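ESCALATION

Customer reports they have been waiting on this structure for their group meeting. Please prioritize. Original submission:
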Amino acid sequence: MPTLLLRAAALVAAVLPGLAWAQPLSFDQALSLAVQRSEAARAGRAATTSANESARAAGQLPDPTLRAGVDNLPVTGADRLSTTRDSMTMKRVGISQEWLPADKRAAREGVARAMADREAVQSAAAEAEARLQAALSYLEAWYAAEALKLTTQTERHLHEEFEAARARLAAATGGSAEVLQLAAARGMAQDESDEARQQQSAAAVSLQRWVGFTPDSLGPLPVFAAPSEDDFVARSPSITGLQRDVELARRAAALAAKERSPNWTWEISYGQRSGYSDMVSVGVSIPLQLAPSQRQDRDTAAKLALVERAEADLAEAARAATADYRTLTSDAARLEQRVDRYRAAVIVPAQQRTAAVLAAYRSNQAPLSALFEARHAEVQAQRRLLALQRDLARAQAQLTFKPLAPGGAQ
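Update from on-call: job pushed to the front of the queue and completed.
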C-alpha cells in the first residue's frame, strides 16, 4: 500500500507541479520517489526483461526449414517446362533441421543468462544512483533550510536591537553611531538571508528533479548506518557489474570451445513423379572445418583473452572501491571529530559569550553593539557547524547509498 500511495503522489506531482506535499517529505519517501521516477532505472528494468526473454529462446533448437521445388525440369525440346512428361522430373517437398547437441544449447543459454544477469545489475545500479543523488539533494535542501533559519534569526535580533537603539537615540541615551552601525549590520544580515534563500532555492530545484515536486518542508534526517568494507566493496555497482562481465566472458569462451565442433543439418524430402514411383530422399550436411587452428581455435583464444581482460578490470575496480571506502570512512571520521571539537571549542564558548553580554547589556554594563557582535559571532559559528555537519552527512550518505541495495541483483 505505501508503494501505491507513493506512485500516486508522484503521478499527481507530475500532472500538477504546483501542488505541494501535504505533509513534510520524509527521507525514505524521497528515495522511493526517486527510484520510481528514474527513467534510467526504468530503462534498466526494460533491458533486463528483454535479456530474460532472449535467454529463454537461446536454448531452443533453430526453427526447421521447409523446402519445396521441382527437380530436373526440361527447358528445351518437346517436353519444355512440362512437369509430367519426363520421367526424371520430380516435384519435391521436404524439411531440414539444424541439430545442436544439448550441451551446446545449454552453453548458448548460459551466455544469454549471463547477459540477463549483467542487465539486472545495470538496472540495480541505476536505482542505487537515483537513491544516492536523491539522498544528497535531500541533505543539501535540509541544511539549506537550517542555514536560512539561522540568518532569519539574526535578522530578527538585529531588528529588535535596531529598534532599541533608535529608542535610546530618541531618549538621548544612545548615540547615532550605534544606530548607524546596527543599520549597516541589518543590511548585511538581510543580504546573508537572501544568499541563504538562493542556496535553498537551488537545493529545492535539485531535489525536485528527483522527487517531482517542491515540498513545503522536510522531515528529520535519518541516522546513516555505514556498511563494512567487505560489504561496501561486494555491493559496489562497478564490482557487481564486472563480476557479471567475467561470468559472461567465461561462458562465451566455453561456448566458443563447443562451437569448434560443427552443427549437422538433417534433411528429408518426398519427390513425386508422374507415371513413375515416388521417391524419398534423406541427407545430412556437415560443415568441413579445413583449418580449425586458423579459425575456430583463434576464436576460442580471442574469447579467453576477453576473460583475462574482464578479470583484470575486476581486480582494478576492487582496488578502486576499497580506496573509495577508506577515503569516505576517513573523511567521515575526521569530520565527526571536527564537529565534536568545534561544538565544544567554538559553539559552547560563543553561547556563553552571548549569555554574558546579554546579562551585561541588561544591567547597562555593555553597549547594544556588543550584544549584536556576540549574537552575530554565535550565528556565524552555528553556520560553520552546519557546514561541517552537512559534509559529514554527505560522506555518510555516500557510504550508505553508493553500494547496491541489500539483495539487489545478487
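Sent to customer with the following note: Residues 9-21 have pLDDT under 50 and may be disordered.
Escalation resolved.
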